[in-house]
């Protein structure tokens, strides 16, 4: 079980105030960083499900600060959701028995528990355009609801997370060091990345309004209602912090307006989907349109290219460094990811004029309302 035995998982789960006793557990989801488990708790006639996660503290260096962000954000979202009485939900943290929102085990690992959200489904690739629209609406709504989060700024759970220039410099130095002697075999990918260095400076967060954003808006980080298909709950809140809305918008486009999975090995299957892009712009503007400023509207069309480039750089850097950051399931997994991202980026570049027109039309119709 992702290096943890079932009995260990039950022991960790027992540290939290769960309803019922843990009957069984299983590995859950396909996160690239944290370890996630489902706990099934038997409570008389009812079965309660929870999500237990180990926070990867090599990546998130301040898990306690992260959990403080998490509880502030979910408290704020919950108060807004209750006010509005819609079908939207947000994650609910379950405290540990000592009252804190995390448990630190004897190996120094940090764990947290949330209630399992019933009735939702997540998708790796949308089955239709409507799902992309609903996901975009949900992420836009998330940003809009957090626009007035009170109190101090959230802590930076990963500093410079979407600093594309810094990601480029890390990539450049990984090429120079070439620790694993892998640079030669990927010279085409290195060249592709070098040729696009200017993308590293197009979206700098200091040039845009500073807002509370999600920062990891892959399509599979929003649950859609199983029967109505409506956006239901945004999940994976580890990287929620101050940032730029464009990275959220762009990352949803990267994962939803694409014909394939982000690690599709057959690159000929990978292309950008302009109609899905249009649905995402419409869904996103429906909920977030009222908070955006002109500079943000102006960069919506290019944002997907920046985030796709940035992630391609990160996968390539990790490959050159010996696959130390992202979990890999097979030899060359990171390399498949890089090829897929760069192929998608090339397809986005081919459709750039069309994307700009789509954003223009949707923006004008928003203001005409
Ligand atoms: C990681 O762990 P997961 O799958 O939620 C990564 C994101 C990447 C994503 C690519 C903290 O997210 O930035 O976009 O993989 N998260 C972190 O699949 O690095
Ligand atoms: Mg994540």
How much of the sequence is in beta strands?
5-15%
| DSSP strand tally | 11
By DSSP (H or I, 4+ residues per run), the number of helices equals 11
Bound molecules: 2-acetamido-2-deoxy-1-O-phosphono-alpha-D-glucopyranose, magnesium ion
Low-confidence blocks of residues = none
Number of domains: 2
Characterise this structure.
The structure is a single chain. With 369 residues, the chain is of the alpha+beta class. It folds into two domains: 6-118, Phosphorylase Kinase, domain 1; 129-368, Alpha-Beta Complex (Aminoglycoside 3'-phosphotransferase, Chain: A, domain 2). It is 42% helix and 14% strand. It has helices at residues 6-13, 63-84, 129-145, 164-177, 187-195, 245-256, 274-288, 294-298, 303-321, 333-350, 352-368; strands at residues 21-27, 35-43, 46-55, 93-94, 103-104, 110-115, 120-121, 211-213, 222-225, 231-234, 241-243. The strands form three sheets. Strands 1, 2, 3, 4, 5 and 6 form a six-stranded antiparallel sheet that branches. A hairpin with a 7-residue loop joins strand 1 (21-27) and strand 2 (35-43). The chain is globular. The model has no long low-confidence stretch (mean pLDDT 96). It binds 2-acetamido-2-deoxy-1-O-phosphono-alpha-D-glucopyranose and magnesium ion. 2-acetamido-2-deoxy-1-O-phosphono-alpha-D-glucopyranose is lined by residues 31-33, 59, 216, 218, 236, 239, 262, 311.
